[in-house]
Amino acid sequence: MTMNTVTRAILDRSSEPRLRAPAPPKAVLDLALACAARAPDHALLRPWRYLVVEGDGLQHLGDLFAASASADATEAQRDKLRKSPLRAPMVLVAVASPVSHPKVPAHEQAYSCAAATAYLELALQAEGFGAMWRTGAVAESTVVREGLGLSANESIVGFIYTGTVDTRKPAVPRPEVAEFTSNWPG
C-alpha cells in the first residue's frame, strides 16, 4: 500500500521537547494556524483562539507561571516555573473560547479546540519545526488565565512550545491497533 503524505505526517508526528531558535516565521505560523481553522467545528462557531508568545513575552509568561505556584512552593520550584517558557523560542497558548449555542455544548467546543491544536502541531512539523504540547497546573491556574486575559468561560487547552528541533528524542513505542479497538456488538 502506498501511503499518503498526510498519513505519513501523522504517523511520524512526535512531541519534541528540545527546541531552539529560530521559531517558525510568520508565513509558516499563519499557514499552521490556517490548518488549525480546518478542524471539525459543529455549527462553525470557531470556539478557539491562540496567543502567540515570543521574545520578552516568554519571560512575562514565566513570571505568570511562577506567580501561580502554591503558597508553600520553594523558590527553586518557582524558578523552574519561571524558566519553563524559555525552553522554546515561541509558545502558542491554545484557548478554548466557547460560545453559547443550543445544540453545541461547551465541552464539544473544547474538543474542537483540541483538534485544531493537533492540526496546528501537525502543520508545524510538516513545515520542519518541532512542537511540544504542555499543560499541567499552569493551564488550570486562575492566575495564569487572568494574566493572559482569558474571559471567565475560556480555558487553556495547552501551551504549544515550538521552534527548531535541537535534538530529536528517541521514537516512542506506539500501541497496535488491536490494543485499543474492538467491534461492537462483539
TrEMBL record:
Similarity remark: Belongs to the nitroreductase family.
Domain of life: Bacteria
InterPro entries named in the record: NAD(P)H_nitroreductase, Nitroreductase, Nitroreductase-like, YdjA-like
Domain (Nitroreductase): residue spans on this chain: 18-163
CDD domains linked: YdjA-like
Keyword Repeat attached: no
Enzyme class (EC, first level): oxidoreductase
Pfam families (UniProt xref): Nitroreductase
Transmembrane residue ranges: none
Gene3D superfamilies per record: NADH Oxidase
Alphabetical list of PANTHER family matching this protein: NAD(P)H NITROREDUCTASE YDJA-RELATED
Keyword Disulfide bond: no
Protein name (Swiss-Prot/TrEMBL): Putative NAD(P)H nitroreductase
First and last residue of the signal peptide: none
Cofactors, names only: FMN
Entry's EC annotation: 1.-.-.-
Keywords: Flavoprotein, FMN, NAD, NADP, Oxidoreductase
